[in-house]
Amino acid sequence: MPDSQPQPPPPPPSSPGPADPSSLLLCGARLTDGRTVDVRLGGGRIEAVGTAGSLAAGGTRAGGARVDLGGYLLLPAPAEPHAHADTALSADAEGPVSYEPQDVQRRATEAALLQLGHGATAVRAHVRVGDVQGLGALAAVLQARRALRGLAELTTVAMPRVLTGVAGADGLAVLRDAVKMGASVVGGRPDLDPDPTGYVEAVLEVASEHGCPVDLHTDAGDPARLARLAAMAGGLRPGVTLSPCGDLGRLPSEVASRTADQLAAAGVAVVCLPQGGCGGVDRRGAAPVRLLRAAGVRVAAGSGALRDVSNPVGRGDPLEAAFLLASRYGLSPEEAYDTVSGSARAVLGLPEVRVEAGFPAELLAVRGDRLAGALSLAYSRVVVHQGRVMARTSAVREFCSSAASVELGLPRQGRGQLS
């Protein structure tokens, strides 16, 4: 279950059994190690991986569906660790963002489907609770979650505004009600509370009561405050995540390094937002991912805003986040992709995915033969969730007839030539 206790490793693959008519065979996919393979899926898991042409779709006898992935790179599916479902797709709205339940549910559902099309089979969405919204926006996002069941995993973080002082009593009551209603993570913005340390203490108390993860918005510009947070959060299970921590990179290097060491020792994860701000944080700039990784902090990357007022052109695309980390922040393509796949799944409490027998069938096929090329031109995609193809995106580029392309033998993609 997403956003729950860390999952045990997958069991070893079972012995071959009768054909499963619902099984799926992915044919001729390329792996990052250069092999070209067939991958058989069944029961929501990877049943077998073999050399191209060696597997049947239905186990011991033919059957099941086939998908030709020739020309595609097969990867563990991304996950989205930081989205804002209640404000997504609201940038073009006239006037204030509507929090009518039907509007929030529609936007949250459409946003999750957009992100599924990009490859994210699991999404953690931050939702404001209390104040004017009450619990209405959360109820609408939870309804979207139920409607999406079987298509994508959508989980929610409850974000109250104030948790300390007289006003904080109501916020604390709403936060507890939000968890009872179905929010699986507690969070919020301690930087905006009159007592940020008290806010964190309140969130950690509720998390401890209910055994749920914590995910807090912070610019991370105050090293003393971060040190106190790390001391309080150390050892909490299922864990604490901070995002987007953009101001951490503006601190003096020795201070930032010391803070990174404290976060690593406490087991606190960081989700950076290389595509920009989000509905909860106005300031821009990504966290210092290389410094954090060097200190041993688990770093994941999220998309943040999806076309809301803080980023009207946000794409919600995890591969764009990985592209930016590789192109602007010095990560290798493999390291960058891990931030949106393996590390993102770990932050969400999801089981590890490898393209090996026994692992969950959560996969993304991207046209290309190398990871660097896939991050650069990730147009055509096939998304697999729970062993089924849930989304396809196909892009075809055509060029007019050119003698140069014929003479040089340049590669072409498309069904024909433009006249």
Can you walk through the features of this model?
The chain has 419 residues and is of the alpha/beta class. The chain is 32% helix and 20% strand. The strands form three sheets. An eight-stranded parallel sheet has the order 6-7-8-9-10-11-12-13. Strands 3-2-1-4 form a four-stranded mixed sheet, with no helix packed on it. The longest helix is centred in the N-terminal third of the chain and has 18 residues.
Task: Explain briefly what this protein structure is.
This protein is an alpha/beta fold and 419 residues long. The protein is 32% helix and 20% strand.
Percentage of β-strand residues: 15-25%
Structural class: alpha/beta
Query: How many alpha or pi helices?
Result: 12
| Amino-to-carboxy terminus distance | 53 Å
Based on CA atoms alone, the radius of gyration comes out at 22 Å
Write the layout of secondary structure elements.
Elements: E1 24-30, E2 36-42, E3 45-51, E4 65-68, E5 72-76, E6 80-83, H1 101-118, E7 122-128, H2 136-148, E8 153-159, H3 165-181, E9 185-188, H4 196-210, E10 214-218, H5 223-233, E11 240-244, H6 253-266, E12 269-272, H7 289-295, E13 299-301, H8 318-328, H9 333-340, H10 342-347, E14 363-367, H11 371-376, E15 381-385, E16 388-393, H12 403-408
Name a few traits of the molecule.
20% strand, alpha/beta, disordered C terminus, 419 residues, globular, eight-stranded parallel sheet, single chain, four-stranded mixed sheet
